[in-house]
Amino acid sequence: MITSNLPVSLRVALFLSLSVTAWSTRRQPRCFSKHSSPSPPSIPKAIPSDLFSLLGSKSQSSTVNPLIAAELKSCLKFLVPSSPSGIGVDTWPSQPCARRQLGFTKFPHPSDTEKDELIWWPPEPVLELARLAVDSGGDPAAIQRVLDPTIIPVPDAEGSKEDRCQLTRTPYGRRFFSEELNSYLKFLFEIIVARGPSIGLNVTLSRFDLFHGHLFLAVDSGRLGILFHAREYPAYDKEVFPYNMGFCQIGSNVTYDDSMNLRNILWLAPLPDNSTKSWAAPGVLVVLDARPDGIIYRDLIPEYVNFARTIYEDDLGEVALDVNYLNVGPEPPNYQIFLC
Ligand SMILES: *[C@@H]1O[C@H](CO)[C@@H](O)[C@H](O)[C@H]1NC(C)=O
Ligand SMILES: *[C@@H]1O[C@H](CO)[C@@H](O)[C@H](O)[C@H]1NC(C)=O
Ligand SMILES: *[C@@H]1O[C@H](CO)[C@@H](O)[C@H](O)[C@H]1NC(C)=O
Fold first, then answer.
1. pLDDT, tens digit, for every residue of 185-235?
2. Distance 221 CA to ligand 3 centre (A)
């Protein structure tokens, strides 16, 4: 959410200063030759629905323009194998494991294989929420209704209060009624940290780096998803990151470098089949590589934040709530979920 928390004036200032960069780094056509036709065939602009279709059922992924699909695939870095049998292949079991229902109450320490399965076919309460999202026609209120109404004040996280930094949208949060759902959210943060290094993303659960995601219902389908933002507050640096992001940036130990390309991490719940009680696609956990020569940077990142590589949750669907995972320790570390 790099700029959306900032006052409008700051967003505009950031826009103005960043647009200078944008002008000078605007991508040139890749293969220009005097002999080619005046307008060489170019890849059409990708939209978020293309991404969701690609990560959906086989019939959906086959509807994506092949040029877009190829470019998108080159920017997907899966934290669990893309599906039990690959993108867009329909040979996975259409029902989540009838053989065994994984859950955190029964399996508090899943093995690596069990973790993959927990992404493909999450525990029952997550599946119920996924179906509710689609059945409601993508209505965020349907998700908000399954929250426990108890209001929980957000305590200080790692000295944020001292710096006058409010990390969350509101100073209080809530939790889901279902403990299994809350545990699943924790599991998502933990698996991102554990598996990130396998694709070149070393991420820490800290108030400057990974502490939040945005739970949304995807455009068109209503599919349940979370867009996580790592590297939220890079340290101010005259040379590499000359942007003042306010109180929450103070004391940051996050360095602005190429790992910023990997800061958008997408979880998608399994996709319910809308006509039957079965499932059209398993869950997904993938890093969206926003390297500057890729299609995600080009088409899915608004130009005025391309320096920060931020994909906006509002562009992906209807946002129901923010998921925060904060260390309210201080010693020993004590990470808690706050839904705001
Ligand atoms: C990530 O951390 C590991 C271990 O600390 C280190 O060996 C590796 O070089 C780091 N990778 C990146 C991309 O920074
Ligand atoms: C930054 O600080 C956090 C929390 O104090 C720590 O866990 C993390 O390892 C530090 N990261 C770096 C890159 O130094
Ligand atoms: C079910 O999904 C298909 C394709 O995703 C769509 O065309 C159809 O309208 C949906 N049906 C209902 C009842 O929502």
1. 999 999 999 999 999 999 999 999 999 999 999 999 999 999 999 999 999
2. 8
How far is Cα 108 from Cα 98, in angstroms, rounded to an integer? 20
d(CA 133, CA 225): 10
102: confidence class by pLDDT, cuts 50, 70, 90: low
| Phi-psi map region of 95: left, alpha, beta (phi>0 left; psi -120 to 50 alpha) | beta
* Nearest protein Cα to ligand 2, atom 8: 204
The angle at the Cα of 33, spanning 30 to 36, to the nearest 5 degrees, equals 105
Rounded-to-integer distance, Cα 130 and Cα 109, Å: 24
- Give the whole-angstrom CA distance, residue 305 versus residue 296: 13
Q: What is the pLDDT of residues 261-282, one digit of tens each?
A: 999 999 999 999 978 889 999 9
Q: Which two tokens stand for residue 206?
A: 């800290």
Which residue has a Cα nearest atom 9 of ligand 2? 204
Residues 279 and 232: their CA atoms lie apart, in Å, by 34
6-32: b or e for each residue (b if 16 or more CB lie within 10 Å)? beeeebeebeeebeeeeeeeeeeeeee
Residue-range domain boundaries for the chain: 8-25+46-339
Q: What is the mean pLDDT of the chain?
A: 86
Does 41 have pLDDT greater than 70? Answer: no
Q: Say how far apart CA 295 and CA 25 lie, in whole Å.
A: 15
By alpha-carbon position, which residue is closest to atom 10 of ligand 1? 202
State the ligand closest to the CA atom of 134: 3
Q: Among the bound ligands, name the one nearest to the CA of residue 200.
A: 1
In angstroms, how far apart are the furthest CA atoms of the chain?
A: 68
CB 221 within 8 A of CB 139: no
